Backbone:
């Protein structure tokens, strides 16, 4: 099967609006998109390269850890989750991150005692993923108090309200004045239906049912039974009957508080309000259940009291009437404060019943709401999504940034993975002065705060912020109908969410009048008083001053929320964090239904797709050498436990024969590939026979190590012995030099004379040399004189040597005088010889002048020849300069193109970021549209259209790959041929880049398509303009598959490399490759032909490969053709011959 057939027919995951991804067959490749056909039927569709992913060889294969897949991408991740969910395996790993998909049903034996016992003592990855909680200490953060007073359509208030109404007996219901849920203001704006089962639906009193059509059914929820279980649970943690009655009195009182309504006072009170007559029963019920007087509670809602700091009679109390909306805000603040205090008290009572103080360590589980988006999003979603942005930022920092920093610190040489952070989105919320949170609090401080003014200020002060825009940019028509001052469209990490700001100020107002707090402190219900009791350490004056100052608790909901979030993140920073991503499988909450698009959107929102590549390339499991030693020292023999931790670990790994690609040794830790630590642990905890064999391997390896150390010790001793001998020799030389120096110091005058006499001897030698340059007649005249001087000099040297140690000062002076006489005689003789030499030279010159006249003619001839050679050299120099100039022009052209390419790349990066945000926005909009059929989504398909590359007059974007290939093989139109070749190879190049990007790291990446030397120097990042003058130019090249270590290459290097790694031959017909040969030692030749094997051939243009500028790469046509036909290649006709 050739490369084209193999590529067109491979299975890929392509995007699908319902299933997330659908299994398809690759049918054609384009410049920007590919054509795929669903394998189970359906029309051929087009998808971008970054939207399709390769599949596993067995698409039915599933694994506990997604990192064990050959290809780890969005498609295989979703498919693995789908396969496991179908078999009720709801837990799946991505390295050390757990994906949990809600089954919406009870799975048998999931948390049974036998299952828990099976997992005890097992490492992560040994068994399929599983969770269980045994107990601990409960800390709660970020209680959503606004839910008590406001719910979205179809959303419930807290379950306790419905459970109380459904499960209370007649006596309790009568005492608490309970009625149907849709009659309470705090419940009727949301979902008012009960959850019930087949055995409990008739147990709920009819007078407590509303006009809802039917109850809701869920395997895990049942309001009636849940209330009975709640009673038992509260009793088990120490609540007696009286406390239970008080607790439910307070819960019911909150419901009655919501039914107290206010109207303007029309009887003359300025700007005041009164309680609506129909609400007096609710006021009485709430007051009696809270242990308060009706009149005092009414005054607490409709007026505020204050005591002037200056002027007036000391202690005078002034009552200021409140407007209806102010009274309603005070009522809601009181309800939220009571519920919050009650919640804190119950959590505190639960913690007292759980033994935790004796624990030396703990596992903390943080359960928090995920990213939320609805058709109508308000302040609750604003806070939750802000919290999720912070947690996602922590996730990015812990999983992506810190993980890669640790790899670099430990020296693992793992390539860095780029990712998109959300720092700018957090900046949008938290920026000082003009961040959204500060703007909201600042608006609340104004005399007449307005949600429209707040929204306008946000858009005005943050108009250039990428993460904030107006609702008209939303993809849902319902949001586009909002005015700019009615909403905020925030581009979150998970996608854009449109928030309605009309209730932001009310929901952010958590202010409770001190007078209301003091009123509760005076309740005759002791349990309620304990919730609001004043600090005993304060003086009564301070209490009184606080009570009548009418100052509000300054912290807004958003301010408290931010403070709690900061505290939470500080705790998280101190922990070793593991992440669990909880996924909702379908919008109907039905068991067994797997909505792929919805799940994929949640995985993207959770940032899972950002970590897939890092998890596959990285080493998520790690432990220090000391911890590993401590873990296994008890099951190892004493011979091994005596080793230091690092050597101990090396012993284990070598003895087990682990694949070195499954682990890496860092500076202080050992790192494991996903799931490999569990295999390592399982191998160590085998039966005794296996352990005995393991110990023998370790001992054998240790013997080898010790033997190598012994060899090293012997070699070190030999080197030390040789060093000592060398030092002894050098010491002898030093002693000899010192003795010589002392002797020379004593005999220095005699030595001086001896050296000077030796210098006379050198002068005599100079006389002999000059004698040789004289004419024969002069030599006979002066030879006797020089011989006499020579004899006298030798005699003087003999006298000095003879009396060197015995002569006295007088004899030394005689020798010196003799030396002076000889020096004068030599100098005078030398002067006479020079004169004689001058006379002889004059005679020689006369003879040579005649010879020179003869040679002049020869010199003229020689110069003429040199001029000719110089002219040729100049011409060659000009040619070389011209070549260099052309090369420099090419380099400058390439720099211009490279700069242009970098600008285009930056624009492409920005556009990709916008497209990514658009895709996330589209996914969120599509999810909302699927859940609510009345919503209308606005698609923007302009960005999906394929670009028309090049400046060709032909539009080839709609041509199929095979059609382009046919045109190239048959067309005689030169312009069309060039355009088709450019388009054809552009598609090939994009497809090959897609393959390399999605190649599994487990498989060895195939680089034999093009030698590394060509890939390293190729200019893939930009496209050179092709000249039409060389469309039929035939050029041939050969390049070795490996580059010599010293960089340059000569013929000898080529031969050596060819014999060891092989050679790559290419025939370029114009700009594009026509034939390709790969010759490897001990292998069959690989012959590839354009039009048949394009997928396996070089897809780069000749200019892009830069082969024409590679020295020694180009070969003759004859050399290529000989090899081609010797290897059995078919006959090939070049283009101009066919034409």
Residues:
């Amino acid at each position: 099967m050739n490369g084209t057939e193999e590529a067109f027919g491979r299975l890929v995951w392509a995007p699908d609006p319902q299933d997330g991804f659908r299994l398809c067959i690759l049918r054609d490749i384009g410049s920007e998109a590919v054509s795929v056909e669903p394998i189970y039927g359906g029309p051929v569709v087009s998808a971008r390269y970054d939207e399709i992913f390769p599949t596993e060889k067995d698409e039915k294969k599933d694994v506990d850890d997604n990192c064990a897949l050959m290809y780890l991408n969005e498609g295989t991740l979703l498919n693995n989750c789908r396969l496991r969910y179908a078999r009720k395996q709801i837990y799946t790993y991505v390295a050390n991150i757990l994906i949990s998909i809600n089954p919406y049903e009870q799975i048998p034996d999931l948390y049974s005692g036998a299952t828990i016992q099976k997992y005890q003592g097992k490492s992560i990855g040994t068994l399929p993923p599983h969770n269980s909680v045994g107990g601990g200490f409960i800390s709660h953060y970020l209680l959503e108090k606004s839910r008590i007073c406001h719910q979205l359509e179809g959303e419930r208030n807290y379950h306790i309200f419905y459970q109380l109404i459904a499960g209370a007996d007649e006596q309790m219901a009568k005492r608490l004045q309970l009625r149907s849920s849709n009659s309470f203001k705090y419940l009727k704006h949301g979902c008012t239906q009960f959850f019930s089962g087949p055995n409990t639906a008739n147990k709920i009193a009819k007078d407590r049912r509303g006009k809802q059509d039917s109850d809701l059914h869920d395997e895990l929820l049942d309001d009636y039974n849940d209330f009975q279980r709640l009673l038992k649970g509260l009793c088990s943690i120490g609540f007696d009957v009286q406390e239970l009655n008080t607790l439910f009195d307070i819960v019911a009182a909150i419901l009655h508080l919501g039914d107290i309504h206010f109207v303007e006072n029309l009887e003359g009170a300025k700007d005041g309000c009164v309680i609506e007559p129909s609400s007096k029963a609710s006021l009485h019920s709430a007051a009696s259940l809270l242990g308060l007087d009706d009149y005092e509670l009414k005054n607490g809602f409709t007026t505020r009291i204050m005591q002037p700091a200056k002027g007036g009679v000391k202690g005078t109390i002034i009552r200021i009437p409140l407007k209806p909306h102010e009274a309603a805000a005070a009522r809601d603040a009181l309800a939220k404060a009571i519920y919050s205090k009650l919640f804190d008290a119950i959590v505190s009572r639960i913690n007292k019943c759980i033994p935790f103080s004796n624990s030396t360590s703990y596992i903390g589980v943080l359960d928090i709401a995920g990213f939320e988006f609805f058709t109508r999003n308000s302040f609750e979603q604003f806070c939750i999504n802000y919290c999720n942005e912070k947690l996602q930022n922590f996730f990015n920092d812990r999983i992506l940034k810190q993980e890669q920093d640790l790899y670099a610190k430990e020296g693992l040489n793992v390539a860095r993975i780029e990712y998109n952070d959300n720092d700018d989105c957090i900046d949008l919320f938290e920026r000082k002065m003009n961040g959204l949170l500060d703007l909201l609090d600042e608006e609340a401080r104004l005399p007449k705060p307005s949600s429209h003014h707040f929204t306008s200020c946000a858009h005005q002060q943050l108009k250039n912020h990428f993460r904030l825009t107006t609702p008209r940019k939303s993809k849902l028509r319902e949001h586009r109908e909002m005015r700019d001052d009615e909403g905020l469209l925030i581009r979150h990490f998970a996608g854009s969410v449109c928030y309605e700001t009309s209730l932001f100020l009310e929901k952010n107002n958590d202010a409770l009048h001190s007078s209301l707090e003091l009123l509760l402190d005076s309740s005759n219900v002791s349990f309620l008083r304990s919730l609001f009791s004043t600090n005993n350490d304060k003086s009564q004056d301070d209490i009184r001053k606080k009570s009548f100052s009418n100052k509000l608790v300054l912290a807004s909901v958003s301010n408290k929320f931010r403070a709690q979030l900061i505290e939470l993140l500080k705790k998280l920073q101190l922990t070793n964090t593991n992440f669990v991503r909880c996924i909702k499988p379908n919008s109907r909450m039905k068991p067994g239904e797997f909505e792929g698009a919805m799940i994929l959107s949640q995985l993207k929102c959770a940032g899972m797709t950002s970590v897939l590549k890092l998890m596959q390339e990285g080493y998520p499991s790690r432990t220090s050498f000391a911890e590993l030693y401590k873990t296994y020292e008890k099951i190892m023999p004493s011979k091994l436990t005596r080793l230091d931790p690092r050597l101990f670990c090396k012993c284990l790994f070598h003895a087990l024969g682990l694949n070195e690609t499954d682990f890496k040794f860092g500076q202080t830790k050992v790192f494991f590939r996903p799931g490999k630590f569990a295999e390592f642990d399982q191998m160590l905890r085998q039966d005794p026979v296996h352990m005995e064999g393991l110990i023998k391997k370790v001992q054998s390896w240790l013997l080898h190590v010790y033997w190598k150390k012994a060899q090293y010790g012997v070699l070190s001793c030999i080197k030390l012995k040789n060093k000592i001998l060398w030092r002894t020799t050098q010491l002898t030389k030093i002693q000899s030099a010192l003795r010589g120096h002392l002797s020379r110091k004593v005999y220095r005058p005699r030595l001086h004379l001896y050296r000077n006499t030796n210098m006379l001897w050198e002068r005599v030698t100079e006389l002999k040399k000059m004698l040789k340059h004289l004419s024969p007649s002069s030599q006979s005249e002066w030879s006797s004189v020089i011989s006499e001087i020579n004899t006298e000099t030798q005699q003087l040297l003999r006298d000095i040597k003879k009396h060197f140690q015995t002569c006295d000062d007088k004899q030394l002076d005689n020798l010196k005088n003799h030396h002076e006489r000889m020096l004068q005689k030599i100098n005078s003789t030398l002067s006479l010889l020079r004169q004689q030499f001058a006379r002889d030279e004059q005679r020689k010159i006369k003879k040579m002048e005649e010879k020179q006249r003869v040679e002049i003619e020869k010199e003229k001839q020689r110069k003429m020849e040199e001029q000719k050679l110089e002219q040729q050299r100049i011409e060659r120099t000009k040619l070389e300069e011209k070549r260099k100039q052309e090369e420099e022009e090419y380099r400058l052209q390439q720099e211009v193109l490279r700069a242009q390419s970098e600008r285009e790349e930056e624009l492409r990066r920005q556009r990709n970021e916008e497209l990514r945000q658009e895709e996330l926005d589209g996914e969120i909009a599509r999810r909302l549209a699927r859940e609510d059929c009345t919503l209308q989504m606005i698609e923007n398909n302009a960005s999906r259209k394929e670009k028309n590359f090049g400046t060709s007059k032909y539009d080839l974007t709609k041509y199929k790959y095979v059609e382009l290939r046919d045109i190239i093989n048959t067309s005689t139109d030169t312009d069309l041929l060039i355009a088709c070749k450019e388009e054809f190879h552009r598609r090939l190049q994009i497809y090959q880049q897609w393959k390399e990007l999605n190649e599994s790291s487990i498989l060895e990446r195939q680089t034999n398509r093009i030698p590394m030397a060509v890939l390293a120097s190729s200019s893939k990042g930009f496209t050179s303009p092709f000249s039409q003058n060389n469309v039929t130019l035939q050029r041939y090249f050969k390049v070795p598959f490996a580059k010599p270590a010293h960089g340059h290459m000569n013929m000898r290097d080529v031969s050596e490399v060819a014999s060891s790694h092989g050679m790559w031959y290419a025939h370029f017909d114009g700009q594009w490759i026509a034939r390709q040969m790969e010759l490897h030692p001990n292998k069959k030749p690989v012959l590839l032909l354009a039009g048949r094997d394009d997928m396996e051939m070089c897809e780069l243009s000749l200019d892009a490969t830069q082969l024409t500028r590679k020295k020694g790469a180009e070969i003759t046509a004859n050399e290529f053709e000989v090899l081609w036909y010797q290897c059995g290649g078919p006959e090939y006709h070049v283009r101009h011959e066919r034409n």
About this structure: The two ends are 31 Å apart (CA to CA). The first strand starts at residue 11 and ends at 16. The chain has a mean pLDDT of 82.
